[in-house]
Amino acid sequence: MPSLSLDLRKRIIETYEKGNTSIRKVAQQFQVSKTTVNNLIQLKRATGEIAPKPPNGGKPSRLLGKEAEAINMVEQHPDYTLSEYCELWREKTDIDIAPSTMCSFLKALKLSRKKKQNEATVPVERRFSKKECLTMYVNGSGFRQIERVKVFIIQR
Fold first, then answer.
1. What is the pLDDT of residues 13-32, one digit of tens each?
2. pLDDT greater than 50 at residue 61
3. Which of 6, 10, 56, 84 suits a disulfide with 80, CB 3.0-4.6 Å?
4. How far is CA 13 from the centre of its chain?
């Protein structure tokens, strides 16, 4: 959730500091939680500022420093799926990671997985001529059937 604007923060603090109101009433007036108002008041008292804190960058990856192992793993098994890489990684390093983490890590290393081409991905030559097409219809039993139909193009 994005942080509150500096203007809204100032108005919340000013309203509270004027007195004659409670944290709950200020929260209701500005449609924020009581915790938000309380945190802003504590921040103002502690630092004298009400600006939002800069982002801290999150926690570092558990795979940091293991780039050589990942490169070696992909070189040895170029056709593995992400799930297979995760299993292999768990066996080698005892670190359990999700396929999305493995994908991000391999992308950061600019490694691509060289997948085996199965029959579905191998290009096939055109099966029908330009004058043939497929029609799909429902037969009497309710099942869809596909049938090759000759199309006659009338030229004028």
1. 999 998 888 999 999 999 99
2. yes
3. 84
4. 37
